Amino acid sequence: MKFLKTPQSRVAKMLTGASSAVLMLMAGAVSAEAAANCIKGDRKAPYTIGWANIYSVPTWMKQTEATIVDEVERLKKDGLVKDLMVTDAQGNAQTQIQHIQSMIDANVDAIIVIAGSSSALDRVITDACEKGIAVMNFDSLVDTDNLTAKVNTDSHEWGERAAQWLVDKLDGKGKIIIMNGPAGVSVSDGRRQGAQPVLDANKGIEIITETNTEYNAAPAQEAMTSLLFANPDIDGVLSLGGAISAGAVMAFDRQGRELVPVTGENARQFLELWKEKGMQGWATMQPNWLGAFSVYAAVQALEGKDVAKTIKVPIPVIDDSNIQSYLDRADQFPADGYIYSDYDRALFDKLLGQ
């Protein structure tokens, strides 16, 4: 076989040109595949970000919004963000749908959302995605995958590990009460579902009753007080998050009942009661900085970076071995707030690189 020498013949040049064109098309295809979902159209920095909050009253939500605002301010200094549009649906999923629609009508570049319903928002979120808006959904997730990314800890793992700790503390035998977050919220439902296989595998554990309550200490204390009057024998409390655990402990204390092992979350009130009362406790956290990370990831997607459609954030464990390290920073957080872990751009880039 003879190889063509330079100068190239017309045929060789045509073949070379065709090969180059194919390579360019292939490169374009790779680029298109690598681009984050929903991103299309002529969107350029500085961007407008929409934060469609389901409700702002709980302290966890206030702290989370603060991380969003802080990240937006950093991105403004980088010249990447222009404005932040904030709405509050006050717990109403239909109102949240209207707020998201208004953001679509305003042609924001990205929408950050904690869903008030796992299914009701599907249509409006799909509409936003189809219009080229980056949609980041964190914490309470929607059913649809027509968005840029879902960001969350593993709710099933959360419930499984909490349940296993309590089972181990009770040596596989005992009567427990389960305290859930609001029904119909994906985080709350996911944690409960994650706990069930552990409970099924340990027949010596009897679920006396369970209840749903807001992620706030006051309603949780009220709910647990009623349950204490009705149930004289309780060996443990499987509390699946928020300040619910603090409310449960306060109810036990108010009634003069002996404290039992309680699971929970990084609510400052719960961690302080745990230490003060010398009780047996276990906790993890839903980091408030999931909000800040969602903003950062949305901007990275708009800048052409690849963003996976599912981003799993590892959950830490808080137990007797490290609770003091959280309490040492307690004064940096509201009395009814959450002592969350530190975060920075290096952590965010690591999560994006999954």
What does this structure look like?
The chain contains 12 helices and 11 strands. It is α/β, with parallel strands linked by helices and 354 residues long. Strands 2-1-3-4-5-11 form a 6-stranded parallel beta sheet, sandwiched between helices. Strand 6, helix 6 and strand 7 form a beta-alpha-beta unit. Helix 2 runs parallel beside helix 10, helix 5 packs across helix 6 and helix 7 packs across helix 8. 43% of the residues are buried. The N terminus is likely disordered. GO terms for molecular function: carbohydrate binding. Belongs to the bacterial solute-binding protein 2 family. It comes from Paenochrobactrum gallinarii. Its main location: other.
What keyword list fits this structure?
single chain, Rossmann fold, 2 domains, six-stranded parallel beta sheet, 11 strands, disordered N terminus, Ribose transport system substrate-binding protein
* Strands ordered across the widest β-sheet: 2-1-3-4-5-11
Q: For the report, how would you describe the main beta sheet?
A: 6 strands, parallel
CATH class descriptor name of the largest domain: Alpha Beta
Taking all Cα atoms into account, the compactness measure Rg is 25 Å
Protein name: Ribose transport system substrate-binding protein
Keywords: Signal
Subcellular location: Cell envelope
Pfam families: Peripla_BP_4 (PF13407)
